[in-house]
Amino acid sequence: MVELKVNNNSRFVDAHIITKETPQKVVEKYGQECTKCHQCCKVDSGLVLEDDLQRLADHMNLPRDEFEEQFLVSHEKFNKKVWKLKQIKEPGKPFGRCVFLDDEKGCMVHEKKPLHCKVTSPKSKFGEQLSLWFVLNHLLDPHDPEAVRQWASYLKSHPTIPGGELHQLVPNKEKRENILSYKIFR
Ligand code: SF4
Predict the structure, then answer these.
(1) To which H or E segment does residue 153 belong?
(2) Which of 30, 56, 134, 163 has the smallest number of CB atoms closer than 10 Å to its CB?
């Protein structure tokens, strides 16, 4: 159980308050618990969905294709191609800071930052659950057999939130087994 403050009143709620079905505005609210320490922005960068792309391009006053070229790299997660903000990597290091992180000003696109950055706050008490909500609602396609197989593999060593279990994503047992045994390939 965890303590949740609502209108200055404390109440105790189930720690699994975030589910796949939790509305985005609720998830964004918890994401605001981000303390803007920017530690995560120093070693990684946010994923950019289609809905984010034009907003960011407009914010930078750039045509979409120029914005893509200057600031994005293509990325794949659970068999889905998405964009990711470029990272400025130091020689010999596999990771680096987000291209929009400024040492003094912090996130240069804070008001328009990608949904991924808005909702995935490691400092929130629901940090990991918020990340899983993002994956389940914006990356993982339960109609894509390869994505389902990759998710099944992920679940062998990671927890999920309610709505993210394999039987919930693919309720038909026979179909689920056929996907996992590659009888349904794609
Ligand atoms: S866009 Fe902003 S919040 Fe997102 S990773 Fe970059 S610096 Fe961090």
Answers:
(1) helix 145-155
(2) 163
